[in-house]
Amino acid sequence: MNFQSQPFARTDRSRLGLWWWTMDRFLLGAVLILIGIGVALSFGTSPAAAARTGMHDPFHYAIRQSLFGVLGASLLVSISMLSPRGVRRVAFGVYLVAILVMMTLPLVGHAAKGADRWLQFGGLSLQPSEFMKPALIVLCAWMFAEGQKGEGVPGVSIAFGLYLLAVALLLLQPDVGQTILITSAFGVAFFIAGVPLRWIFALAALASTGMIGIYFTFSHVYERVHKFLQPARSDTHQIDKATQAIASGGLFGRGPGEGLLKRQVPDVHTDFAYAGAAEEYGLAFSLLLIGLFAFVVLRGLQRAMRMADPFEQVAAAGLFVLVGQQVCINVAVNLNIIPTKGMTLPFISYGGSSMLAMGLTLGLALALTRRRPGAYTQPDSLAKAGAALP
Fold first, then answer.
1. How far apart are CA 175 and CA 358, in angstroms?
2. Containing domain of residue 330, as a range?
3. Domain total of the chain
4. Would 8 be classed as within a structural domain?
5. What is the pLDDT of residues 341-369, one digit of tens each?
6. CA dist., res. 32 & res. 37, Å (int)
7. Cβ-count burial of 237 within 10 angstroms (0-12 exposed, 13-18 middle, 19+ buried)?
8. What are the residues whose beta carbons fall under 8 Å from the beta carbon of 69, sequence distance 6 or more?
9. Rounded to a whole number, what is the largest CA-CA distance in the chain?
C-alpha cells in the first residue's frame, strides 16, 4: 500500500487520524465491498420482489437497500472508533433496549410467517433480536473476563443469566434459528475464555437436550426437518427453485438482470439472495462472495486470537464467529444442505435490521481489534508498515 496517498498523515493525532492508522484497513475495505455488493445485487432482485408484493416502483427495494447500506456503513465506521470501554457501554445499552423491546413483542409486535419478531412503526420494521446478538456476545465476554480476575465477580453465572434470558425471549417469538446461532456463538466464546472442559461438555449436553426438546415442541421445526428428510412428500417449491436458479447460473451466470427462476423464488431478495446472485453472476461470483466472507472472518479471528486482553480476545472472536456462522447457515440453506431457515446473508440480503445489525456487529469487532499500545501479544503486521500507534 502506498502510504504517500493516505488521507491522514502518520503524525495526525485527530480522532479520525488515530482511527485510520489503528484500524485494520483490509478488514474495513472487505466489509465495505460486501455492503456495496449487497446494494448492487438489490437492483437485480428488486423488480421481481416488487412485482410479487404489488409495488409500483420496480426499484423500491433497491432504493431502500441503498439507504440501508449508507446507514450500515456509517454505523460500522462510527462504532469502530470506540475504545474497549466504549464497546462495553454500547453493548450494555443495546442489549438492555433490545431485551426490553423483545419483552413487548407478544403485545405490540408485528406478526409475520407465524412469529412475532418485528416492531413496526410507519413503513419500517425493526427486529430487535438482530441487535441483541452482538451485544450479548460482548457482554458475556466481559463477564467471562471479570470472572477470571478472581475478585469475587460471578462472571460465568451472570453470562449464563444473560444468555438464558435472551434464549427464553427468542423461543417465545418463536425464533429457533437465532437461538441456535447465539447458542453456538456463546459456546465458542465460552470455550475461548478458557473455562474448564467439564463446563464445555455440560453446555454441549444442555444444548443437545434443548434441540431435542425444540424439535418435539415446535411444530414448524418438526415440519421443516421432515420436509428436508422427505422432500418427495412435502411442498419444497421455494428451495427447489432456489437450487435450480443456482445450477442454471453456470460458471459466469445469465447476466445482470437476466435471471428467470428468481421470479419464482418468493424470498429472492431476502433469505435467498445468494440464489438470485448465483443465477445472474454464476459460480465464479458465488465463490468470490464466499471468499470475501471467509477473508473477513478468518482475518478477524487471526487478529482476535493475538489480543492480549482476555475480554477483547473473546469478544472479538465471538463476533467474527457470529458473522461466519450466519453466512454458513444462509448459504447451506440456499444449497439445500440443511433444513430451511429464514436467516439473512449479511450485507447481501435485503433488510434494514439485518444491515444495521451487521454494521453494529462488525463495527464492535473492528473497534476491539484496533492497534493500541500493548493490545497484541505479537508484533502486528500492519505496525511493520510504518503506522504510528496512538
1. 18
2. 24-385
3. 1
4. no
5. 878 999 999 988 999 999 999 999 999 99
6. 9
7. exposed
8. 35, 36, 38, 39, 347, 355
9. 67
